[in-house]
């Protein structure tokens, strides 16, 4: 799978933009605040229908406009697939092959992406919220049922927490409705935990191999699921649903007292172990970064295994955060494997030596120059005219 072209209208600082990409490595060079990260974000939004930088869609719309449009042409093994996403004050509209989708869950998964930004290097040492978001976003792209269960779980959780608050403040004494909500929460929650366990097992298989290669066989990486639900391993999905329901009933008085749901997948976490020791607690910064790199790169093969096609890889200024050894391993892993979009202020020596035939866009003050590859003498120049809201391509 690769993204052939991208068309933006009124997105962030792009009033109008049309670009064609290489199926290999595409490099966006430029100083800060020139718009290179906005292009990566647009690709991410086209794939997932949400931004990784903001929850407010209004921020994605060009100043003074009411709507932003993102269009992309995706090449898959089944053929070329047009995708369209409109962001407006009344919500989102998504189209696949020019047909509007009734639900965003029917749209997500048509284009799969993996985003690797500097903050992802804090995946290991960061807070549990970030790790839960990581697994939800990545697994949600390739498993529509997981995304459905997660959406339903969050809706029921909100209802249950509101009702627990009413009970805790003695605004109601009826616990029958609460039991109904507990059954629903356990049904969706048990399914989520079962699917997360399956996903982590696949992720560990590839991350372990990558980690061994980076550390030259010195470190074995394992991933474990840290759940507030006791004894989750070795149970079927139905058994996990029942276990969660029983624990909800057992903790009922405590939850009523505190006015909130105290356990479930919304409070679970992932643990990373190197040679049996918790890298979050005992690992060096280098080990934590190597672990994050191994896990992010492992997603590429997990998505390929689950969907039959490689995803797009978005690298947002990551090379500057990695030392030479990790840069080398990253670039060797992706070369000739996945379509990659890489942003950087400039090409460093490692990238120059390892990236073969990239398509390079230099973005500065609304002007971008494009080379077909490193050896091609023909130069394409893309000039952006703000007053005309258009791009001109010349050779």
UniProtKB/TrEMBL annotation:
InterPro entries: DNA-binding_RecF, DNA-binding_RecF_CS, P-loop_NTPase, RecF/RecN/SMC_N, RecF_2. Pfam families: SMC_N. Residues 2-345 form the RecF/RecN/SMC N-terminal domain. One of its GO terms (molecular function) is single-stranded DNA binding. Keywords: ATP-binding, Cytoplasm, DNA damage, DNA repair, DNA replication, DNA-binding, Nucleotide-binding, SOS response. One of its GO terms (cellular component) is cytoplasm. SUPFAM superfamilies: P-loop containing nucleoside triphosphate hydrolases (SSF52540). ATP binds at residues 30-37. One of its GO terms (biological process) is DNA synthesis involved in DNA repair. The keyword DNA repair applies. It comes from the Bacteria. It is found in: Cytoplasm. NCBIfam families: recf. Belongs to the RecF family. The RecF protein is involved in DNA metabolism; it is required for DNA replication and normal SOS inducibility. RecF binds preferentially to single-stranded, linear DNA. It also seems to bind ATP. PANTHER family: DNA REPLICATION AND REPAIR PROTEIN RECF. This is DNA replication and repair protein RecF.
